[in-house]
Design goal:
Chains A, B: Keywords: DNA-binding, Transcription, Transcription regulation. The structure is a homodimer of 332-residue chains. Chain A is built from 13 helices and 12 strands. Chain A has 332 residues and is α/β, with parallel strands linked by helices. Chains A and B meet through helix 4, helix 5, strand 2, helix 6 and helix 11 of A and helix 4, helix 5, strand 2, helix 6 and helix 11 of B. Chain B binds a DNA duplex (16 and 16 nucleotides) through helix 2 and helix 4.
DNA sequence: TTGAAAGCGTTACCAC
DNA sequence: GTGGTAACGCTTTCAA
């Protein structure tokens, strides 16, 4: 029964609401015995401050918001979880607002949070144009952009260096002596696939290797997409012994199709995924992949969003994916 | 810049705040032209109602809360996602509050939500005692309990019939002519493992089969737990051709160990999991499992929590797990 | 050390 | 149709 208000406590304690407010907020200048008496009343009467009233007068809420496309996707669930941990440590409530991957709904998700007077928001947005975001960030000093880099607001971006990821995959394939190399990419119209591919190609080039255009296929970044892409690859009738795949889900789809066609992974073909989601440790063979350190990225984003004064001169926060070698790759 | 208040709009439009409030809330009795003029001002001045002020006077917030142990766990992520979908449809903000699996932190998560004046809360709690929950639900008519059944508040419970799940597994093993049967269960001190096992044993009995006590092992409900449990099983030196496993993660661990020891699934041993999480479709062999319809359960829970008048005479909401046959089982 | 009172931005009731 | 105004529960000067 959280019906008791600050007035009820004040009345019961024979003091003014001001005094009660002081003890609730650990304010100074309250007599030891009054404080104790009030505290007692608070717990026996089960008083809980009304956060709405507080937010109203303070003109801000003790909340942190996060905008993601979807809670069910393991990747975004991990992102939300990282933020949640920081939120708990700082005793602020987590507000999750989902927008599909469309500029409009991403924007809607953000305004919804702003209406709650939520000041600190970690935003994952692939579709809102740069300029819109820049304007938004200028008005809202506690917004943080995750998984995306925009020059003008770089000190409030937490992003992954996709190029390096591609490069590391290329380096590893080269080290393993592969030379007939394929790539399965995402067909989504966002930057990440392009960057990963570019990095991969540059890495290959640095080892004197090249990627045959016929061996680049695109599909939706899912298990089914991976299965589809692998079939397309096989149709090319062009030999390959290694594939760099856009993400782990696709990679598992690719492997599944390959094995159905009698090709063994890693004996006949090596596969590298991307993200290192839970899945990759459960699959057989366990997936060699590039770890997306989403947990620490999320935590840092939350910390940044919560910190009162965002330091514009802070070092920029680019993260590098780490190669995790498991069982889906092998030397030729 | 969401600085404009209702007063600013009123002033600019030369009307009273009351009138502005009416158009904001689509209230009746506003002149067509005044309404239009005000609407124009609202959008040009970028006015957004302060939700805290609104909640304060309305004594309730347009939010729905959910209490789960963890956002990162795919099962709970799916639960949260179902609720989120209903929340979006009803234009209410989703509040997620995580408590580990402990009575204390589950309780903390609930009070945190109540402080926000969140009335509708979907609670997943395994540890808070029945009586506490009953008292809580009596004071809060819009709470809903998910994944647990308590007689006294049964019309506000949405739960899965674990017994039937166990029974269906038993039926299927019997149909497949298995008779040397094992069980890998969770060692967590909650009801679900007991219920699933009881249902399984009853099902077996109805087919004249029995479960050798030596072939029941307990471990943590995770991949590693499954691996461990399978090793324990093998040590018994008691033959078995089928295993009923507590959940999919464990089942994948079990399969992994089995195959490492040279036993093929399903050729040498059939495995049935529980939950039908994403994982089970990605594993090889794809898992035969009992589907936990968490998505529809979550949606119904959300609907129930949001509905103004919870009907105490409503039919109780027990769900049955459905057997999903894939590749990890086969007839003897 | 304590109290009185002025807001914070809304909604809703009652006049006009 | 429209306006005035009292709440809602809290924090924070300013006085005492």
């Amino acid at each position: 029964m959280s019906k008791a208000t600050i007035k009820d406590i004040a009345r019961a304690a024979n003091v003014s609401v001001a005094t009660v407010s002081r003890v609730v907020n650990n304010g100074p200048k309250v007599g030891a015995k009054t404080r104790e008496r009030i505290q007692h009343l608070i717990s026996t009467m089960g008083y809980q401050p009304n956060i709405n009233a507080r937010s109203l007068v303070m003109k801000k809420a003790a909340t942190i918001g996060v905008v993601i496309p979807d809670v069910a996707d393991p990747f975004f669930a991990a992102l939300a979880n990282g933020i949640d941990q920081i939120a708990r440590e700082n005793k602020v409530q987590l507000l999750i607002s989902t927008g599909q991957v469309s500029a409009e709904s991403e924007m809607k998700a953000i305004t919804s949070l702003m209406q709650q007077r939520c000041e600190s928001i970690v935003i994952h947005s692939k579709k809102i144009p740069d300029e819109t975001l820049i304007a938004l960030f200028n008005d809202n000093p506690k917004f943080v952009l995750i998984d995306r880099y925009i020059e003008a607001i770089s000190h409030r971006c937490i992003w992954l260096d996709n190029h390096i990821g591609g490069q590391k995959a290329a380096d590893y394939f080269s080290e393993l002596n592969h030379s007939n190399i394929a790539c399965v990419n995402s067909n989504l119209d966002i930057d990440d696939p392009k960057e990963r591919l570019a990095g991969f190609q540059r890495g290959l080039a640095s080892h004197g290797l090249t990627l045959n255009d016929k061996l680049i296929t695109y599909a939706s970044p899912s298990l089914q997409g991976g299965e589809q892409a692998a079939q397309d690859l096989l149709k090319q009738n062009t030999p390959f012994s290694a594939i760099f795949v856009y993400n782990d889900a696709m990679a598992i789809g690719v492997i599944s199709t390959l094995e159905d066609k009698g090709l063994s992974v890693p004996n006949d073909v090596s596969v590298i995924g991307f993200d290192d989601v839970l899945l990759s440790r459960y699959s057989r063979p366990k997936l060699t992949t590039l770890r997306y350190p989403i947990d620490s990225m999320a935590k840092n984003a939350a910390l940044l969003a919560l910190s009162a004064n965002i330091n514009p001169t802070a070092q920029s926060s680019s993260y590098s994916p780490e190669l995790v070698i498991r069982e889906s790759t092998q030397a030729l």
